[in-house]
Write a structure and sequence with these properties.
heterodimer; A: mainly alpha; 2 domains; flat; B: mainly alpha; 2 strands; globular
């Protein structure tokens, strides 16, 4: 995907975000009373409108560049940087799963499980020794440092708890 | 004077010294690993400071910041890959020195000049913070609004190649910060009836997500691309430079310290710009200019002095005006606020002891840098051999611990994941992240001061154009945006001419 195509998609997404945001702001936040009371609606509304205006400018810029009126930014029209969508989405799911596990099983079990999962799935590590050492080592080190030495509260599980 | 002695007692307690040392060590390790910046270290270190007293807590954060700034030179010199962007200029002569078998003296010189730059900027900072605070104490809500707007526009304008994307990023940060209860009237905004959303997006959670999650995704995606394990570095040690060498380059060190401190004091600039400017300056005025790029020690001295001098410079607007110049100082600001220390004109009146404690902590951090780099350089060499993806696994756990410990809520972990993945996508689309975080930090001040000013003036907008201070700040903000726009246009025109010449 070229820079211009990426900028066009970004501009469209941001314009949609700005439109929905502005609509929600008008629909759900009351305005001020006047006479110096700006009210809680004004700033979110200004920001939403500003984002809308800036995304329209981005779209115009992308259109002009696509027509060759303006020189593209970066290294050239074809230099669109790559986004690794699958690792990004996988990590989003894994962190969310980690959050659920922390609440249900507590820090010790949740951390060991998530490290095993990440090493197996993301890093493609197949050595049980390496996975075991990494998961137990990291979990215990964190547990000792945070819970025991620094006194930081780590999650306790509602189903089961080890630490 | 009594406050100063009180601060000395606090900062020289074994606990505080240990905290500064720990922070410096973490900063050095994170700074020396390419891709794992000290901003990530700061975001992860922040939750650790919750249970600490203010001086050790801020000392830990400042130690991480200073250690990280210095640590970037290790991989820059040994591997030719800067550990942090501010060490990029060090690569130009530092790595050729390694190839020439002079890595030890390059590392030793880098440490000494870093300490020099840092202490120089600390002295300038001590004088400036008090001076700027005395001026800013007269500011009312309208002036503060204009000042924050100026700081914000500088950051949006200077932080990336595209002004438009910088502004978009800043507005996104401002929007995120309006979510939650309105600070003045207590009305929920964009909370969709969720109790978790009432407190809004936590700044610390957002910081962890913005800086650490993109690193994890990158490390997992490119796990085979970066490998330092096979590079021969085992015999490296730190060799102190001779007094003759240092004395010979003293004037260069002073000039680069001035460049670094000055650049650092401008919000939105930072270590990378300062170090390249200093390198260019050294090359231009050096008698051995032709040797630059081939392993000239001056090419290490200049950028390393300047990028460490930035640390003191960035603290000037942070402490005196409450405006962070870069993401790292934004995290330090968050750390200060957690401990009830609100930077700004009234800082000295309310927290004199803590401020002096911070000054002492900075000096302590440089002593730690010196000791750790001189004695523990081999450890950092080994750290560089640890696969990046394995470090990312540990960072993932630290992210979750950090996000969870802020409010003991799994909701913050979900928020962190969403913000982090969103940040990764934005970085991929070349939208700078810095304005988002600074929009989040400065957004509430911007809104609250504007609304307070309007209440005081009973709705009269004239409050924003009758004060000369306000007009000056508005003018400067507009000037920055216009100048950045003109420079972008010039750059495009030049590129177009180059294309036409090539085509012809």
């Amino acid at each position: 995907m070229t820079n211009q195509q990426q900028n066009t998609i970004l501009g469209l997404v941001l314009l949609a975000v700005a439109s929905v945001w502005t609509w929600l702001v008008i629909d759900t936040i009351p305005p001020g009373f006047g006479d110096g009371d700006i009210g809680p609606r004004a700033f979110p509304l200004i920001f939403g409108l500003s984002l809308g205006a800036l995304s329209i400018l981005l779209l115009i810029q992308a259109y002009l560049r696509a027509r060759g009126v303006e020189k593209p930014e970066g290294q050239g029209a074809e230099a669109g940087s790559s986004i690794h969508w699958i690792p990004a989405f996988t990590l989003l799911v894994e962190i969310s799963f980690y959050g659920v596990l922390l609440e249900k099983t507590g820090f010790v079990i949740a951390t060991m499980v998530i490290i095993v999962l990440v090493m197996w799935l993301n890093l493609k590590v197949r050595s049980p020794l390496k996975i075991g050492l990494m998961s137990v080592g990291t979990t215990l080190t964190c547990w000792i440092i945070f819970e025991k030495i620094l006194g930081i509260y780590l999650a306790n599980g509602t189903w089961i708890n080890l630490g | 004077m009594e406050s100063f002695f009180q601060a000395l007692t606090l900062a020289f307690s074994p606990y505080a010294i240990g905290a500064v040392g720990f922070g410096t060590f973490v900063g050095l390790v994170f700074g020396s690993i390419p891709g794992l910046t000290f901003t990530v270290a700061l975001a992860l270190a922040l939750p650790i400071t919750f249970s600490m007293a203010p001086v050790p807590a801020i000392g830990l954060l400042l130690g991480t910041y200073i250690g990280g700034m210095t640590g970037g030179s290790v991989s820059a010199i040994l591997l030719g890959i800067p550990g942090t962007p501010s060490a990029a200029a060090t690569v130009l002569d530092g790595h050729p020195m390694t190839k020439n078998g002079e890595a030890s003296i390059a590392l030793g010189t880098a440490v000494i000049v870093s300490v020099f730059g840092g202490v120089f900027s600390l002295v300038v900072m001590i004088v400036s913070v008090d001076l700027v605070s005395r001026i800013a104490i007269e500011f009312g809500p309208a002036q503060i609004f204009a000042l924050v707007l100026f700081g914000f526009s500088t950051i949006c304008g200077l932080c990336g190649p595209s002004l438009l994307k910088g502004l978009i990023s800043g507005v996104l940060g401002l929007m995120i910060m309006t979510i939650g209860l309105d600070a003045i009237e207590g009305i929920p905004r964009m909370t969709f009836g969720s109790i978790n959303m009432l407190q809004g997006v936590n700044l610390l959670v957002a910081m962890i997500g913005l800086f650490a999650v993109p690193f994890i995704i990158e490390a997992f995606s490119q796990k085979d691309d970066v490998s330092f394990g096979d590079r021969p570095m085992a015999k490296v040690r730190t060799e102190l430079p001779s007094f003759r060498l240092l004395f010979k380059n003293l004037w260069l060190m002073i000039r680069c310290s001035v460049i670094g401190t000055g650049i650092g004091a401008i919000p939105g600039t930072g270590g990378a710009i300062a170090s390249f400017l200093a390198y260019d300056h050294a090359k231009r005025f050096s008698k051995s200019g032709r040797k630059f790029g081939k392993g000239n020690i001056e090419g290490v001295i200049a950028p390393e002095t300047a990028n460490n001098a930035v640390t003191g410079g960035t603290l000037i607007p942070l402490l005196s005006l409450g405006i962070p110049g870069d993401p790292a100082t934004a995290i330090v600001l968050a750390g200060l606020m957690i401990h009830g220390i609100v930077p700004g004109p009234a800082l000295f009146m309310n927290h004199e002891v803590e401020v002096y404690g911070m000054y002492v902590a900075v000096v302590l951090a440089y002593f730690w840098v010196l000791g750790l780099q001189l004695l523990g350089i081999r450890l950092f060499v080994h750290v560089l051999k640890v696969p990046r993806e394995m470090l990312a696994v540990v960072v993932l756990v630290l992210c979750a611990v950090g996000a969870y410990s802020i409010r003991n809520s799994a909701f913050d972990i979900y928020s962190m994941a969403v913000i982090g993945v969103g940040a990764y996508v934005l970085v991929g689309l070349r939208v700078p992240i810095t304005p988002i975080i600074l929009g989040m930090v400065l957004g509430p001040t911007l809104e609250n001061e504007f609304r307070t000013a309007m209440m005081l003036s009973e709705g009269e907008l004239s409050i924003f154009y009758t004060s000369p201070t306000v007009v000056i700040f508005f003018g400067l903000a507009a000037l920055i945006i216009i100048l950045q726009g003109i420079s972008e246009l010039k750059l495009r025109r030049r590129s177009r001419q180059e294309v036409q010449t090539t085509d012809a």
